[in-house]
Specification:
single chain, about 450 residues, FAD/NAD(P)-binding domain, nine-stranded mixed beta sheet, binds flavin-adenine dinucleotide
Length: about 450
């Protein structure tokens, strides 16, 4: 008897990173066999790998994502904390300058765990290895999709690192291959239309280094975030605690031409930020790594849900579906929310065709909010180009006043945090009690 209503026995996941791992966990409840194909070779957990180059950069797990992680892997958060994650109260322990204003610090009760991205992924991997029907196959690159006579997905072609190729049959295929996703091209090769692609160019860079103990400037916070103050200032930086008593320091810039390429340029870039706190914390600290640079040219989303013809049984999720400005730290939590949607749908859906169509429609709705949050901020930079959201200037003005109010109004900051952590809809920032507080503040500022 099948474990699901769509009569599938084997599910295949392309890509074994966050979206791939979380979807594999969900699929293991509904399929006899789940195969995860990962092009990277198997490496020790908690280590950086080639297929996830962004892993060297600061990765914050939002509360919304953390709660889903705990739901899918009970006990994982405690285990990570035991092994090195730092627990921080988001308002109390984070020193945050936003548009030049310092956020109010108080005990909010909204705690997050902080660690490096490889540490987080390594712990998810360890939990997955306890699930008997999940089979990770490393060094396996997916080359193309296969269809049956009804034009439904029937499997895919895989290539081993030695160049040997073979066909692997499967009833459901998840594309979780991230920024490198080839689904759009594969569809075209199979005779389908390519989906519409929306891109917004932001020309963002990240440069990160690991430091051990920080200088005396860093004695009353766990982490620091200096968000740029556009359009005047396009640079910023963060410091986060990671496992092993170390700190990951990330500098970033939008439309910035010269990137810091060595330790002294890194310090100089930090010194030029609007706030002195980051530079003060690292100026005498000893680096424990070289500089790792990552460029993020554009936000990108595919509109698969709008295609009239699409192969039943192929689901695209995570960064393959949509990549959002990473400064807002939403990617992993969005992947987690998508995995939850998949779980709910597999409990009830009876046909692959409807599951496929509705999945893309539903995750596209999930993305609307983070996409809008990111674009509202990204279009404050003069060089940003692409399709602007409707009502952008009103939204920008209002959000800026909410942001500024977070420097003195605890209630507004709490609500802002809930939106940021994907626990509340941004519409909640327009409820009367907040409007009432933001508007007099705005009037006072303008007078
Ligand atoms: C600089 C930067 C900072 C970020 N910071 C944050 C943050 O603070 N918080 C947050 O939540 N998110 C952050 N993100 C986003 C986050 O990294 C992603 O959203 C998250 O990793 C989910 O991605 P994914 O699993 O869809 O894809 P990825 O993590 O990119 O993984 C794709 C996987 O697929 C494999 N693969 C690719 N092609 C194939 C193929 N053909 N066959 C087999 N395997 C294949 C790759 O090897 C890789 O393992 C950041 C991103 C960047 C770029």
């Amino acid at each position: 008897m099948s474990l699901n209503n769509i009569e599938g026995k084997r599910a295949i996941v392309i890509g074994g990173s966050i979206a791939g791992k979380l979807s594999a966990r969900v699929l293991s409840e509904f399929f006899e066999e789940v195969i995860v194909l990962e092009k990277d070779q198997k490496i020790d957990s908690n280590t950086l790998r080639k297929g996830v180059p962004q892993g060297s950069q600061g990765h914050v797990l939002l509360k919304g994502g953390e709660e889903i992680l705990e739901e899918l892997f009970p006990g994982i958060i405690d285990e990570m904390v035991k092994e090195g994650s730092t627990v921080s109260d988001f308002a109390q322990d984070l020193l945050w300058f936003h548009h030049g204003w310092k956020k109010k610090r108080f005990h909010s009760g909204l705690s997050i765990i902080q660690q490096s991205r490889p540490f987080l992924e390594g712990h998810i991997q360890k939990s997955l290895e306890k699930i008997p029907n999940i089979d990770f196959r490393y060094g396996c690159k997916v080359k193309k999709l296969l269809l049956n006579e009804k034009k439904e997905i029937s499997g895919l072609t895989v290539e081993k690192h030695d160049g040997k190729q073979w066909d692997l049959p499967g009833d459901l295929v998840i594309d979780a291959s991230g920024a490198a996703s080839l689904t759009s091209n594969w569809l075209e090769q199979l005779g389908f239309n390519k989906p519409k692609k929306t891109e917004v160019n932001i020309d963002l860079f990240y440069a990160s280094m690991i430091f051990g103990k920080l200088g005396v400037g860093a004695n009353n916070w766990h982490s620091l975030l200096i968000y740029p103050n556009p359009p005047k200032q396009s640079s910023g930086g963060t410091i986060s605690p990671i496992e092993g008593g170390r700190h990951l320091v990330t500098l970033l810039g939008y439309g910035v031409e010269s990137l810091p390429s060595d330790h002294s340029a890194f310090l100089q870039y930090a010194k030029n930020l609007d706030q002195p706190d980051l530079y003060e914390a690292i100026k005498t600290a000893v680096p424990e790594s070289s500089i790792q640079i990552y460029r993020f040219p554009a936000l990108r989303r595919y509109h698969y849900h709008k295609l009239k013809q699409f192969p039943a049984g192929l689901l695209v999720m995570g960064d393959s579906f949509c990549r959002i400005d990473p400064v807002f730290a939403q990617g992993m939590s969005i992947a987690a929310m998508e995995a939850v949607i998949l779980r709910k749908m597999l409990k009830t859906y009876k046909t692959k065709e409807k599951l496929t169509k509705d999945f893309h429609r539903k995750i596209s709705k999930i993305i609307e909010v983070p996409w809008l949050i990111a674009l509202t901020e990204d279009f404050r930079f003069r060089h940003t180009s692409g399709e602007k959201p409707i009502g952008l200037s009103v939204l920008q003005k209002y959000v800026k006043n909410v942001v500024l109010a977070c420097s003195h109004n605890e209630k507004i900051y709490r609500q802002f945090m809930n939106v940021l952590h994907l626990k509340a809809h941004p519409v909640s920032l327009f409820k009367p009690s907040i409007l009432y507080s933001v508007i007099p503040f705005l009037n006072k500022k303008n007078n």
